[in-house]
Design goal:
By secondary structure, the chain is α/β, with parallel strands linked by helices. The protein has helices at residues 13-24, 42-45, 77-90, 179-188, 215-223, 227-247, 252-267, 271-277, 294-298, 356-359, 393-414, 423-435, 464-470, and strands at residues 6-9, 30-33, 97-98, 103-107, 115-119, 124-127, 129-132, 154-157, 171-175, 194-198, 205-206, 289-290, 303-306, 310-314, 317-320, 325-327, 330-333, 347-350, 354-355, 378-380, 419-421, 479-481. The chain folds into two domains: 6-139 and 338-481, FAD/NAD(P)-binding domain (3-Layer(bba) Sandwich), CATH 3.50.50; 148-204 and 252-333, FAD/NAD(P)-binding domain (3-Layer(bba) Sandwich), CATH 3.50.50. Strands 3-2-1-7-20 form a five-stranded parallel beta sheet, covered by helices on one side. A five-stranded mixed beta sheet has the order 6-5-4-18-19. Strands 8-17-9-10-13 form a five-stranded parallel beta sheet. Helix 1 (13-24) packs parallel to helix 11 (393-414). The relative contact order is 0.15. The structure holds NADP nicotinamide-adenine-dinucleotide phosphate. The site of NADP nicotinamide-adenine-dinucleotide phosphate has 25 residues, from helix 4. NADP nicotinamide-adenine-dinucleotide phosphate binds at residues 52-54, 137, 143, 145, 175-181, 183, 198, 200-201, 286-287, 310, 334-337, 448.
């Protein structure tokens, strides 16, 4: 049986990792399609001031393409994008990317047929295998606040930053105080005239200065044998300790909370502001944010923190429940992404007209986050329940693409056209994963990890090493080979 042909949707870390893995193992017919004008995924789109990863780069990078020249602990967006582009070039997969292709539908009318992908402009592609690598955080959300269209000033989302819009001297509203806002607010605060930050919930913070690495450190990482490897391992264990705190809120979680409390108190001298920013939920329930710059930024003379509920957007600005109108020239939405919708608006239809939208109506689910019964030879990367609150998604992706490749090789060995996860295996797995959330901090508040039914559909409930272990080997008994 010949090697399968593969279509990958998404040219971010996942899509690039998949192409590298497949091509390295003889699966040569790989095409990557992406709506954007270039490869890079989230790191192409998120160019807001201060954009950087919040996982240290020695871990937030491919194990097979380690660098010793990272400029700082958590690299800024341009450095990460350049890294991904370099890796793609090094491994010869940059040429597999077709950009400007917005896939709107994927169909496999019956198991023996290939997948056919249709782009918005009507073009089609067909292949034996579909890999969906669109990630969880690719659809920016502007909340449906009354009057949102009526605003007379300029508005944009943090993930589509308008670099042509000069913020200097302007009155700016930032809505949302998640991981993105926490990075761009300190970066823009010194430029703007006045900044009103609208916070719906406070966050737990841990320190992160992210200064440029001193020259001696970069030299040491480059020249001391084993130091870079040791560093990666140390960061891994640090990240796993965050998961430990989230998994055990009544014990280890208290330590995390104490650390965060001491840090936040040291930065917050004003008791009124302290009360206003203080989170009212369990440490670790939402993403713990790493920033030593956010709380000081809130204390600038030209920054005000608004905690009243937003009731309306009006032409002049933002109206809050206390009846005040906050007049602004610019609104920046730091309101995150439609994470629980997964690959929408792409419509995926399997044999017999089975729609993935319907299949996931009660919440997305997939075996190991990758395979769905009824959708033969379709694999999802960074799919349901594979997000991490403490760790590097790149590590998960590496395990996923190896698992996908081994599954495809097993199908090839058996001379079959398609491979599909067994329904009973997927259901048992899903029940196990959901049960593992019981008692953890993730269940103790509302967050973007949960869908409208309250089910946690984005996050992996355990440690990185557990996911590594679960995906280390493909068990052919889990699959039907057609
Ligand atoms: P987010 O964490 O989902 O934050 C959205 C913010 O908007 C929250 O503060 C939310 O408040 C607020 N919000 C949403 N709807 C609102 C409404 N109707 N009215 C008022 N406020 C509203 O989004 P994000 O900051 O873009 O981050 C998303 C994820 O991207 C992160 O968790 C992280 O995984 C990833 N990220 C990573 C990095 C990195 O460094 N690697 C950087 C940025 C983002 P509530 O908290 O009350 O819901």
């Amino acid at each position: 049986m010949h090697a399968p042909s593969v279509l990958v949707v998404g040219a971010g870390f996942g899509g690039i990792a998949a192409a590298i893995e497949l091509r390295a193992h003889g699966i040569r017919d790989v095409t990557i399609l992406d709506a954007a004008p270039g490869l890079g995924g989230t790191w192409l789109h998120n160019t807001y001031p201060g954009a950087a990863c919040d996982v240290p780069s020695h871990l937030y990078s491919f194990s097979f393409a380690q660098r010793t020249d990272w400029s700082r602990l958590c690299s800024p967006q341009p450095e990460i994008l350049a890294y991904l582009q370099d890796v793609a070039r090094e491994f010869g997969v940059d040429e597999l990317v077709e950009t400007g292709v917005r896939i709107v539908a994927a169909d496999r009318p019956h198991t023996g047929a290939p997948w056919t992908l249709t782009a918005q402009d009507g073009r089609t592609w067909s292949a034996d295998v579909l890999i969906v690598a669109t990630g969880q955080l690719n659809r920016p959300v502007v909340p449906d606040i009354p009057g949102v269209e009526s605003f007379a000033g300029h508005a944009f989302h943090s993930a589509r930053w308008d670099h042509g819009h000069d913020l200097r001297g302007r009155r700016v509203a930032v809505i949302g105080t998640g991981a993105s806002a926490v990075q761009f607010v300190p970066a823009i605060a010194p430029q703007v005239g006045h900044l009103s930050v609208f916070q719906r919930s406070g966050n737990w913070f841990l320190p992160r200065r992210n200064r440029a690495f001193p020259r001696w450190w970069r030299a040491a990482i480059e020249h001391v044998p084993g130091l870079a490897r040791w560093r990666r391992r140390f960061i891994t264990e640090y990240c796993e300790s965050i998961t430990l705190m989230i998994r055990h809120p009544a014990t280890w979680g208290r330590l995390g909370k104490l650390y965060s409390t001491l840090f936040m108190r040291s930065q917050l001298r004003d008791p009124q502001l302290r009360r206003a920013v203080w989170p009212d939920y369990t440490f670790g329930c939402k993403r713990v944010l790493f920033s030593s710059h956010w709380l000081p930024a809130l204390q600038r003379d030209n920054v005000s923190l608004e905690t009243e509920k937003i009731t309306e957007i009006v032409p002049e600005g933002v109206r809050t429940a206390d009846g005040r109108t906050h007049e602004v020239d610019t609104i920046i939405w730091g309101t995150g992404f439609a994470a629980t919708d997964f690959m929408f608006p792409m419509e995926i239809t399997g044999p017999g007209g089975r729609s993935l939208t319907d299949e996931w109506a009660g919440g997305a689910h997939a075996y190991l986050g990758m395979t769905v019964p009824g959708f033969p030879s379709m694999f999802v990367l960074y799919g349901p329940n594979t997000n991490t609150s403490g760790g590097s998604i790149i590590r998960y992706l590496e395990h996923q693409v190896r698992y996908v490749r081994e599954t495809l090789q097993e199908a090839q060995r058996r001379g079959v056209r398609a491979v599909e996860v067994r329904g009973d295996v997927e259901r048992a797995y899903d029940a196990e994963i959901q049960a593992r959330f019981t008692g953890t901090a993730w269940t103790r508040c509302d967050s973007w990890y949960r869908d409208e039914h309250g089910r946690i559909v984005t996050n992996w409930p355990g440690y990185m090493r557990e996911y590594d272990e679960r995906t280390r080997r493909v068990d052919p008994a889990d699959y039907v080979f057609h």
